[in-house]
From TrEMBL:
Domain named HTH tetR-type: residues: 26-58
Name of the protein described by the UniProt record: TetR family transcriptional regulator
An annotated Gene Ontology molecular function: DNA-binding transcription factor activity
Species lineage: Bacteria, Pseudomonadati, Pseudomonadota, Betaproteobacteria, Burkholderiales
One Pfam family this sequence matches: TetR_N
InterPro entries per UniProt: Homeodomain-like_sf, HTH-type_TetR-like_transc_reg, HTH_TetR, Tet_transcr_reg_TetR-rel_C_sf
Organism: Turicimonas muris
Keyword S-adenosyl-L-methionine among UniProt keywords: no
Length: 198
C-alpha cells in the first residue's frame, strides 16, 4: 500500500471502497466492479488493497466492529433503543448475505479465516464479561455458544424469510437469553409443568 500526500482524500476513497464492497455481491464482483461502484479508477484500488482477500478482511473488520460496538452499547448500557438497533442490524438481509459471502471467501483463504476466528474470540470475551462467566463453568460456556448459534441462524434465515412480528421475536429471544445465557437460568419448563400437575 502506498502513502499519499493527501491522506484525507485517501481516507474518503477507502471508505467508498468499503461501502461499495458491502453493497454489491462481494463473491461475484471483481475488484474492478467494486472500484467502479466506489467511483475509484480500477487500478487505484490496489493502492488500498493488494487483492480481494485483503479487501474482504477490511470489509469483515468494518462489519464486525459495527456489530461489536452496537452490541457492547446495548449490553452494558441496557438501553432498549440500542438493543432494538442491534437486533435490526443483525436481521438485515444484506448483512447476512455479506456475512455468508465472506465466510465462503474465508474457506479459501486461511488469513481471512484466522481473522474470523480472532473476531469470534473477541465477541466471546465480550459475552463472558457481560454474563460473568466462570472460566471453569463448561455448561455456562456451552449455553452461550448455543445462544450465539441461535442469533447467527436467525440472521441467515432472515435472508430467505424476513420476520414479520419482530416484537414477538424480541420477546422470545429475551426468554431464550434468560435460559441460555444467565449464570442461573430461569427454568421455563417449571412454568409449563406446574399447571399440568394440578
Amino acid at each position: 500500500m502506498t502513502t499519499h500526500r493527501y491522506p484525507r482524500r485517501m481516507e474518503i476513497k477507502r471508505h467508498r471502497l468499503l461501502e461499495a464492497a458491502q453493497e454489491i455481491c462481494f463473491h461475484a464482483a471483481s475488484m474492478s466492479d467494486i472500484a467502479k461502484k466506489a467511483e475509484v479508477s480500477p487500478p487505484h484500488i490496489y493502492n488500498f488493497y493488494k487483492n480481494k482477500a485483503d479487501l474482504a478482511m477490511a470489509v469483515q473488520e468494518r462489519m464486525n466492529q459495527e456489530i461489536f460496538d452496537t452490541l457492547k452499547n446495548s449490553m452494558f448500557e441496557e438501553r432498549s433503543v440500542d438493543k432494538d438497533k442491534c437486533l435490526d442490524n443483525l436481521l438485515k438481509p444484506e448483512r447476512a448475505a455479506l456475512m455468508l459471502t465472506l465466510i465462503t471467501e474465508a474457506t479459501r483463504d486461511t488469513k481471512l479465516m484466522e481473522h474470523f476466528r480472532k473476531h469470534q474470540k473477541k465477541f466471546r470475551e465480550l459475552l463472558y464479561e457481560y454474563y460473568h462467566v466462570d472460566p471453569n463453568d463448561e455448561e455456562h460456556k456451552v449455553r452461550l455458544e448455543l445462544l450465539n448459534a441461535l442469533y447467527a441462524g436467525l440472521a441467515v434465515r432472515s435472508l430467505f424469510s424476513p420476520y414479520e412480528n419482530k416484537e414477538l421475536l424480541k420477546e422470545l429471544l429475551g426468554k431464550a437469553d434468560s435460559f441460555l445465557a444467565r449464570k442461573y437460568p430461569v427454568d421455563y419448563m417449571k412454568d409449563i409443568e406446574a399447571p399440568m400437575k394440578k
